[in-house]
Specification:
InterPro entries: ABC-4/HrtB_transporter, ABC3_permease_C, MacB_PCD. By secondary structure, the chain is α+β, with helices and mostly antiparallel strands. The chain contains 14 helices and eleven strands. Helix 2 runs antiparallel to helix 12 (357-372) and helix 10 (307-339) packs antiparallel against helix 13 (374-388).
Length: 399
């Protein structure tokens, strides 16, 4: 027989109380799952915010009156939408002092297509003037888009070279965007002329309007120019007949960051509260288990085990439970965060992008350390009581 080590005794003790052991490990697993998942979701959101900041490109967006929230939904979540402003407004904006670049885009909400289980956002871009999406569309395709060619977001199904169909029109996929964490992941980009053609097919009664319309005008200002001065310039020239809203990129970023901070705060608060509850439950379990096991501990002492070794057995049991629970919780947290990222992104409604490997390692380390120390901390009062009791008293109280 191999020597009866502290580890073997601890394992035997855990196997003698399988329900209690599994229950304590499950508590740690739930806490570790929440902490790891929360940390990773927070990291993904932070990466998405950084991506939004890097890819935003425009300082100001001009949209029809009342459509400010919709344009944010298009950018952040690609919620399919269609609205129009007169194309002539683009010429007005381009001539305002302080405008460096201005370009129009047209949004068309698709019918259900084989690429997706729901509608997607079709975005027509003017390749001659575009400065926002063009630079990273070029990374997806080695030539400008032709009439029936599209570049798809990362969430859109279909291999490069395959075809999609919208409104009975076939389109060839010539490129795929890298993940952005934004609504562009669920969008499909095409030429402005083709987007207008699809819009005319979708709503033939508005064909004349669509031919001379855009959905949004994206504006980049010159260095040192306040974007508010551009909106003032538009209103000075057109007055109330402009019938437009202005969406400032800085405001969108600050609003998005504020929402991120709230979500992160809620996640960590919930994890912290659950950790306190878990530690309290374990403390109570170990506290009452001590009374049941006093005779066991005294017998070990009588057989020659030192106080330190008996305490080591108790802490060894708790450490093994914590480690098992933490590993299981982190494993399921990884599965949920990794394989349900699209659903999480749509539920939260904020830019969501997988971060660098360092963020995964950091989240793993935080959740593992926090999970592993939970049981031992709860067991410390029990270990302290073991150290105070003498053998005779323990045997008498354990009878």
């Amino acid at each position: 027989m191999p020597p009866l080590s502290s580890l073997r005794i601890a394992l035997a003790n855990l196997s003698q109380k399988p329900f209690r052991s599994m229950s304590l490990a499950l508590i740690v697993a739930i806490f570790s799952f929440m902490l790891f998942s929360g940390t990773m979701v927070s990291a993904n959101l932070q990466a998405g915010i950084q991506s939004l900041s890097a890819r935003m490109g425009a300082d100001l967006l001009v949209v029809p009156q009342g459509e400010g929230k919709k344009i944010e939904s298009v950018i952040l979540r690609a919620e399919p939408t269609t609205f129009y402003i007169d194309e002539s407004l683009l010429n007005v904006v381009q001539k305002i002092d302080g405008v460096a670049q201005a370009s129009g885009q047209l949004f068309i909400s698709s019918l259900d297509a084989q690429c997706c289980s729901v509608k997607v956002q079709l975005i027509g871009i003017d390749q001659a003037t575009d400065f926002v999406v063009g630079p990273w569309l070029k990374k997806a395709s080695d030539h400008p888009l032709k009439e029936n060619e599209v570049i798809v977001g990362d969430y859109i199904f279909g291999e490069i070279g395959s075809e999609l169909m919208f409104y009975n029109q076939k389109f060839k996929i010539v490129g795929r965007l890298e993940p952005t964490g934004m609504g562009f992941d669920s969008s499909i980009f095409m030429t402005l002329d083709m987007a207008r053609k699809l819009g005319e097919i979708a709503t033939p009664e508005k064909a004349d309007q669509i031919e001379k319309s855009l959905s949004a005008i994206l504006v980049r200002v010159k260095p040192g120019v306040d974007p508010i001065s551009i909106s003032d310039g538009v209103l000075d020239q057109l007055g109330l007949r402009a019938n437009v809203n202005f969406v400032f990129a800085s405001n969108m970023m600050s609003d998005t960051s504020a929402k991120l901070q709230k979500i992160v705060g809620v996640m960590y608060s919930v994890a912290g509260v659950f950790w306190l509850v878990a530690a309290l439950v374990m403390f109570v379990v170990y506290f009452f288990a001590f009374n049941e096991r006093q005779k066991e501990f005294a017998t070990l002492r009588a057989l020659g085990a030192s106080k330190r070794r008996v305490i080591g057995i108790v802490l060894g049991e708790s450490t093994m439970l914590s480690t098992i629970g933490a590993v299981v919780g982190i494993f399921f947290g990884f599965i949920v965060v990794n394989f349900f990222s699209v659903s999480i992104s749509k539920t939260i409604g904020l830019p969501y992008l997988a971060p660098e490997a360092a963020a995964w390692i950091e989240a793993f380390a935080i959740a593992l350390v926090a999970g592993v120390i939970t049981c031992p901390l709860a067991a410390l009062p029990t270990a302290w009581r073991i150290g105070r009791k003498d053998i005779y008293t323990s045997l008498r109280e354990g009878e």
